[in-house]
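S.,

As promised, the zinc ion run. Input:
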Amino acid sequence: MIKVAPSILSANFVDLKPDIELAQKGGADFLHIDVMDGQFVPNLSFGPGMVEAIRPITSMPLDCHLMIENPERFVTQFCQAGADIVGVHVESTPHIYRALEMIKQHSVKAEVVLNPGTPISLVEDVLPIVDQVLIMTVNPGFGGQKFISQMIPKIQRLNQLRQTGENNFAIEVDGGINDNNVASVYKAGADIAVAGSYVFNSDDPIAQIKKLKTRTSD
Ligand code: DX5
Ligand code: ZN
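Predicted complex:
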């Protein structure tokens, strides 16, 4: 069964707490927090203050996806704010190894993230030190976009690399996930699916999370 990480980017910004509680009640495995700087992606969202505010109101692990230039400038702040996982884009810094090591120094799970156009070969040398790899299945920046199905073979290739190599990372996918495509990403090797609009732009977020899990239970 796939693990589900609802993204608060599609939750109710003026009253986040009820949505976070619904995610937890629905059996969400992580809470996904999308951080955008208006530079790396053409949108702005939350900072470490949001992570700090959410930390005491949920026991779900906080999965922080940093879509920011030179994320090593902010890694420490997100770790200290209470992040359980910090994801950094390989395209966002010339010092990806340093950024990942910084995350690990705080005993926080380190994740490397790839845009749809970025080949897996670009992260091969950091795979031994990461806890997770996030394959973007949309161009980052906005919720509610269409899933890019060409990412399925990419997930398969990464999964093969994991099985043949000395690595032991989880595979997460993010963007356009719904009950029509979740089984295909799971079958390709994904362990965790982020879902924003599918969960929160619905009258029943609990049912939506359960549907994603049911679709992937053999
Ligand atoms: C996009 C974000 C995603 C987004 C997913 O930049 O990284 O996490 O919130 O939203 P949906 O599930 O609506 O594509
Ligand atoms: Zn995300």
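The helical segments are 16-25, 48-54, 75-81, 96-105, 151-164, 182-188, 197-200, 205-214. The chain has one domain: 3-215.

- D.
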